[in-house]
């Protein structure tokens, strides 16, 4: 028989075409639009942190003097021993301040970086009802400070601290505005200097007066958190531990006394039984 012819291999099937990718979801499209500029714009960074700046007589004015070439300084905050925070009118002014990074200022090598999270102080005029008063002479009393600002309006509260500053609370924002305008009025400790031929220096110094966001309600909330905090402070924990120790010692002492009384009672009972047995004999 003639040999069978080898069958031809079957032709390869054509690979199926890839299915078209589904369109991007709506969320991704929205994100892309925001990246392109469709979303809300972030506020410009107009502040810088300055560390390593420490010299004698350092103040808001002297710090402004060191950075005056950057121009348009709107605010300076000082945290002595930590840093200075300087805000400018535009981002270009802040970028110019970055050129001071790693330079010597008053013999100190300073570090200047952008303050990305810090924000300038909001406008407080016409909104705040409390003023901060700095530069108070030693031993200033609440009554003296209240007398100094009595003509501004109704005062609801006065606080004076040992570090030569205080707060005056008014019943309206208009009264606080009048108090801020008294920054150039000499502080005379509540004394009448109109009849004095020459006013002494102690009665002619001016005070630093500026707006404060403090209110009587915020003070109450702060005090509640301070005195009713959880977990308890170290002092409260130590007092509780001492009280528990005293209670445990008293309980142990009472238990020992009860055991002694019980032993004494059993011994007395044994002696009476012995006596009764001898009498019967």
From TrEMBL:
RRM domain segment(s): 46-117, 129-214
Region (Disordered): 1-43, 220-281
Composition bias, Basic residues: 1-15
Alphabetic keyword roster: Repeat, RNA-binding
PROSITE patterns: RRM (PS50102)
A single GO molecular function term of this UniProt record: RNA binding
NAD in keyword set: no
InterPro entries named in the record: Nucleotide-bd_a/b_plait_sf (IPR012677), RBD_domain_sf (IPR035979), RRM_dom (IPR000504)
RNA-binding keyword on record: yes
CDD domains reported in the protein's UniProt record: RRM_SF (cd00590)
Biased composition (Low complexity): 16-26, 264-281
Family annotation (PANTHER family): EUKARYOTIC TRANSLATION INITIATION FACTOR 4B/4H, NUCLEAR RNA-BINDING PROTEIN SART-3
Descriptive protein name: RRM domain-containing protein
